Amino acid sequence: MPTYVYLCGQCGEEFTLILSIKEYETAKVTCPKCKSGETKQQLTHFMTKTSRKS
Ligand SMILES: [Zn+2]
C-alpha cells in the first residue's frame, strides 16, 4: 500500500500514513499530535527518482 507523508500546519509535526487508495480518498487526516485537521500532504520521493546527471 502506498505511504503518504503529511505535515501539520498547526504544530509542524510530520507523520506518515499508510492508506489504501479508497481510504486515501475518503479519510480525513488529522495530526496525531495536536489533532488539527490542517494537514498537508507532502510529496514523497519514490525510489525510482532519477538523481543522476549525465
Ligand atoms: Zn499538529
Give a short summary of the structure:
This protein has 54 residues and is an alpha+beta fold. The chain has one helix at 21-26, and strands at 3-8, 14-18, 39-42. It has a three-stranded antiparallel β-sheet with strand order 2-1-3, with no helix packed on it.
Report on this model:
This protein has 54 residues and is of the alpha+beta class. The protein has a domain at 3-28 and 35-42. The protein is 11% helix and 28% strand. It has one helix spanning 21-26, and strands at 3-8, 14-18, 39-42. The protein has a three-stranded antiparallel beta sheet, with no helix packed on it. A hairpin with a 5-residue loop joins β1 (3-8) and β2 (14-18). The mean pLDDT is 86. Bound molecules: zinc ion. Zinc ion (ZN) binds at residues 8, 10-11, 13, 31, 33-34, 36.
What is the secondary structure topology, with strand pairs?
Elements: E1 3-8, E2 14-18, H1 21-26, E3 39-42
Antiparallel strand pairs: 1-2, 1-3
Strand element count: 3
Q: Low-confidence parts lasting 5 or more residues at pLDDT below 50?
A: none
Bound molecules: zinc ion
Mean pLDDT: 86
Q: What's the helix count?
A: 1
| Broad structural category | alpha+beta
Strand order of the largest sheet: 2-1-3
Residue fraction in strands? 25-35%
* Radius of gyration over all CA atoms, rounded: 13 Å
* H-E string: EEHE
N-to-C CA distance: 33 Å
Helix residue percentage: 10-25%
What is the approximate shape?
A: flat
Q: How many strands, what sense, and barrel or not for the largest sheet?
A: 3 strands, antiparallel
